[in-house]
Structures are given as C-alpha cells and as structure tokens.
Amino acid sequence: MAGDPFAPLPGAPNASVRRGTRDDWAPLFPVPPSAPPPPEAHPKRGKPSALWEYRSPAGELLGLVCRFDQPEGGKDILPLTFCENRGRGRQEWRWKGFPEPRPLYGLDRLAARPQAPVLVCEGEKAADAAGRLLPDHVAVTSPSGSKSAGKASWIDLRGRAVTIWPDADTAGFDYAEGWDAADAERDGWGADRALALIAAALPSGEYMHQAHGLKPRTGPDATAFGDIPNEGGSEESTHRRPPQRDVLLSLLDGCELWHDADNNAFVTIPIKNHFENWPVSGGSFKTWLCGRHYAATSGAVGGQALQDAIRVIEYRAIYDGPEYSTFLRVGEHEGDIYLDLGGRDWRAVKVTAREGWSVIDRPPVKFLRSSAERALPTPEKGEGIELLRDFVNVRTEGDFRLFVAWLLAAFRPTGPYPVLVINGEQGSSKSTVARLARTLIDPNKSDIRAEPKDDYNLAVSAKSNWVMALDNLSSIRGDLSDGLCRLSTGGGFATREHYTNWGETIFDGQRPIVLNGIPDLVSRPDLASRALLLTLPAISEGERKTEEEFKALLNARLPFILGALLDAVSGALRYRSDVHLECKPRMADFALWVTAAEKSGALGWADGSFLDAYRSNQEGAVESVIESDPVAGAVRALVGSEGWQGSWQGTATALIEALGAHVPEAVRRSKVWPTAGSIKGRLRRLQPAMRTFGIIFDLDARSTGHDRSRLIGIRSQAS
Questions:
Q1: Kind and range of the H or E element at 17?
Q2: Where do the H-state alpha helices sit in 576-672?
Q3: Contact between 445 and 372 (Cβ < 8 Å)
Q4: CB under 8 A, 24+ apart: contacts of 289-294
Q5: What pTM did the predictor assign?
Q6: pLDDT in tens, 391-450
Q7: Position 215 confidence tier, pLDDT thresholds 50, 70, 90
Q8: What are the strands, taking DSSP E only, across 380-510?
C-alpha cells in the first residue's frame, strides 16, 4: 500500500486538532471567582520556592509567577494562568504564559496609590525588596525577565514619576543599567541609602542620550521624556484614556477598605483633619467618589462605570480588607468606653476607669452614623448630676434616680438595657422628658417617633438609632411588646433580603428604649420585668415654662450635665468589679452597673439608695400588670377566697370555670378571657409576676389515672 497506512482518510478531521494543541488554551483575564485553587506543585519540578500574584488595578487575580530552584544552583521561572480550551470549553490552571501585551506586577498597588513615585525593577523578588526598602514608592516589574520587557504593557506608568532599578548582570544591563534592590536589602541597606541611590539616577532623556555613545548633556533636554522614541503602538493607543472604572479605583489613595462581621463593606475616608466611616454601597460614598473624579478629571462619571467600581471596591473591602466591629454612638475598645459626639470633626469622648474622661480627635473604634444623627455638645467638668433635676418632672427623688440610672445604662456599649416607660396625664411633660432622655445621649433630627407598624420597621429603626424613643402610645400591641423585649435584652429580627428568594437579612442587637403615653402601657409581665415605670405629676400653670425658656436653660446646662454623667460612667468602670449583689433583680447587669456608679461617689447618692428605688419600682410594675390582667386578678381572688385550702389542681376546662366565678360575666364573654386551649400559655406568661405575691403555677402536671391527662396546679408558696 503506497503512503502512510495510518494517514487520515481524505476529508477526515486532523487528529492533532481532535486531541487539542497547546494553542487551544487561552488565559482568562481576570481569573473567575468560580475557578478552583491553583495547583500547589508542578508535575516535574515540584513545589515552587516562591510565587507572586499578578493582579489587575481593581485587585482581581490575573495569574501567578512561580520560581523553582534547581539542584545545581540555577532557577526556573514559570507563569501559571487559568485557561479555557477554545474547542472543548474546559477551564483549568495551565503552566502557560500571559498573553501580550503582558500585565505588570503591582498594578493593584499602582491603582491604590496614584501619586506615589514608581520603581521599575527586574523580577518580582527585586520588586518586593524595593517595596520594603522604599515604602513611599510603588515597585513594579514585567513578567518573563528582561528579554521580554518589550512584550509588557507599560501604559499604566504614563504620567508617573518612574525610576528604573535593574539587576547588576548582563540581562540587567539589557533591561536598563544599575544594581539590584534585592542585593541592597540582603546587604543591609536602609531607606536613606536607597533613596540616595534613587536621587542619583540619570534622567530618562540623558540616559538614552549616553546609551547611544554621545557625550553627557545638561539643560532641560536632559530630563525630557520626549527623547524616548515611541517604538510600539500608534499615537492613538499611546494617548488612550484609562477606563473610568480604573480612574475611580485610583482615587482611593489614603482610604481604608474593611468589612464587619456580617461582610458588609465599609470605607474609612480622610477628610480634612479627621476620618469618616461610610458604607461602600451608601449614597454618601458614591457622591464623594464622583466628586473626587470631577476634581481629578473635570469630567462626570458614567453610571455603569460607577457601579463597576463600587462592586470592585466591595470585593476588596470584604475579601482583602480587615474585619472590624461597628458602633452607633457608643463603642468599646480595650475596656474603655467611647461616645461619638456626632460633630463634623468626628471627635469622641474617651471614658476610662482610672483617668476619667477626655475629648479625643481620632477614636480607635469604627463609629457609623445615620443622616438624621445630631451632635452632642462638648462636655464640661465641674458640676453634679443634680443640675439635671430642674428638667425632669417626677414625683419622688427615687424616680429621679431611676431616670438617671436609665441614662447611665445607655452609655454601656452592650446591654441588657431597661425600658423607660413614662406615663402621665395631658400636660405632665411626658414627651418633653422622653425627648430629654434621648437628647442627653443620642440626639436626632426626630428625637421621638410614632410606634413602628411591625417588627421589620422596628429593626430598621434600631439599625440606624442608638436610642429608641416612641411617643404618645395609646397601648402596646402584643407583637410590639415582644419586639421591645428582644431589643431590651437581646434577640434577632430576620427578614428576606431584597431581590433574593433565599437570602436573609438579620438584625441582632440591643438598644436603650423610651416609651411614653397617657394610659398604663405595660400590661404584659415580660415587658414589665424589664421596665422602669415613671408616672409624672401634672404641672401647674405657675410652674410651666415656654418651649423657648426650657431650651435656652437646657442648652446652657447640657455640657455640664453630660460631663456629670460621664463622671458617673467612669466611676462605674472603676468599681464594677468590686460590686456584688446578694439578691440579683431581673436586670442584674443594669443594677450592678448603676450600683458601681453610686459606689464611686460621682452621683452623690447614699449607698443602696438606687437599689431601694429600683426594687420598689419593680413591685409597682408587677402590681400594675396584675391589676390590668383579668386572669391574674381572678387567680388572686381564687387564692384569697374563703374556701381556699392552699392548693388547687384540675384540667384547663375546670380552671376556666373556677376562675370565672371571680369575674363579671361581661369579662367572661370578652376576647380578653382565655379559652381552655390558651389558659396555660396565659399563666406561663403571668408566672414571674404571680410568684412575687407567693402564688406558684404547676403547668406540667399529669393525672395518675390511666388517661394521664394534663392538669394545672395552683398553690400558695407558704403551703
């Protein structure tokens, strides 16, 4: 048979094409997020002794360059890129070079520092060493050594102050001429010596002049970049503008990108002589970024370019930036408390256990602010908390101490926090006292607000406000009462994330809360156990002040009142480890904190006076709950009836009948009266309040008969 017997038949596809060739694999720029991790070792050379990541100006991974040391002392430098096979559609990591024009090593650092001078070195190792020697410079290099410098894209250096620092070998002299930064670092050079070398470098025009064998020259022509011939690329490509996205990313010099524990992206921006913390996705940051772009280019930003830049910035903040805790108004760092004063200069108050408090310019915590937040005055020293007494219309000295106690609790970075509930008839200054409570710690454009319609709106408000102040309530719905309890002592609010099917947005936090209204607002035991109840007396016409008079006097005293509160907070920090409560009330952390402030002497109160007022207030809250609940009243009537034998046990149906004998028929027919199916849950909610009066419920008993039916037991504690 003539010819090759294994040759393909005429018209058949070429076998080499079917198998795939090396040229079928094309690098993907940038590496997609779905790409697997690169291989840890080369199939023949083993693990690399060093590797360098090449990244885009936006920080996206482009590929790797790996160094392999040879046994005989040489080295191999191999690029590693993520490629796609054009014919098969497969994607995988390949030991394949970068496509031309090749990217520079250090593009992300160039973009992050647009004003920094640039060092061009030969090799990634030398570039890293130069970056350590001269941290004020940005060190870059091109891939594949000196012989391939012409295959790299140098457009990103246009308009930058550039110095070339090559190796001191033949290849280095081909690349440019000079001495290696890695050698300098190895020999113990410092930044001063390296800067002296940079200062002695020849200007580019003079270097090229002498490289052609001409005599040295002087004058302005010696430094002209125009002497360097344009050997590649058209005039149009040389002057091509970078994409707006890359320009926006280059404007972040001096900014810190970071994220919180929930992977929300933030940026800390230097503005004048202070720093501000903004969410990357927020309107304020976008406006600032567009303003910086206009100042730099005199041009507006396209919507798509802005969106692309924001997405890249979010990625860098979440995956490359550090994680910090965020705070609203009150923060904590290394045992000290910080209060954000809310002013334009972003100053804060630092409160310590031993050194008292002071106003500082740059707090170490990441404070966030809402657009509605308003500034506190700069606090002043020298006055006591009694200066506040003229602004709080309360009946007794004990009630005044409870008001101050709530304020001190609001200065704690973490809860639980008591709920301040203010009742009173019309004209008793309920709203004024509620507004004052917020003004002293967290002033806002809208200090007091209407009740939220659901848990979602409650959580949204809590996410943007440190103090929650709800005004002029007629009653408290059951779901709102439960939500306020969660905010007081801790609990999460979850809702579906917008534009997703399965995403979930969660708010989990604690907040100081103020409520006010004419009727008794606390009718549920769980909220009552967290509450400080203040009933305000009516104000006579002779004692009433105009709004203008009240504000003028308050503004004059507010700095000193705030200073007195901060004195007490410092005292609480100092003495809290020395306070031990023998009988801990429901809000034990709150009680211990205020007792520590009392012990410090900053409040001028006798030891134990706060706890006496607090216990008395708690008893009144429990009494209020029982009086407002017909089931609680019926249980007390049953226990106090003439035929009471110390205990009662029966089914839920029997209990409804027994309790019904002690309430009017109108109550039994109303919606507030429980059914046999709901009575056990009602009693479980009442149990803490009833225990105060010596009445105990047994809600898990069963009969001893064959049916093992569920029973409910009631007994007097003394029995």
A1: helix 15-19
A2: 588-599, 609-628, 630-639, 652-660, 665-669
A3: yes
A4: 289/248, 289/251, 292/251, 293/244, 293/247, 293/248, 293/251
A5: 0.64
A6: 999 999 999 999 999 999 999 999 899 999 999 888 888 999 999 999 999 999 988 989
A7: low
A8: 419-424, 468-470, 492-496, 504-508
Highest mean pLDDT, choosing among 163-172, 208-217, 238-247: 238-247
In this prediction, residues 4-18 reach a mean pLDDT of: 41
CB 523 within 8 A of CB 474: no
**pLDDT digit string (tens) for 582-592?**
888 888 999 99
Neighbour order of strands in the sheet with 647-650: 647-650, 710-716, 695-702
Which two three-digit tokens encode residue 550?
């009240």
For residue 36, with 0-12 CB atoms within 10 Å meaning exposed, 13-18 middle and 19 or more buried, which class applies?
A: exposed
- Residue 588's DSSP bridge partners are none
**For residue 193, what are its two tokens?**
């010596």
Structure tokens at 250: 């280059």
* Integer angstrom CA distances of residue 333 from 248, 325, 365, 367: 33, 10, 7, 12
SS3 content of the chain, % helix, strand, coil (to 5): 40, 20, 40
**Maximum mean pLDDT: which of 294-303, 423-432, 553-562, 626-635:** 553-562
Q: Do 120 and 152 contact (CB within 8 A), yes or no?
A: no
Locus of tokens 């979440």? 318
Dihedral of alpha carbons 379, 380, 384, 388, sign:
negative
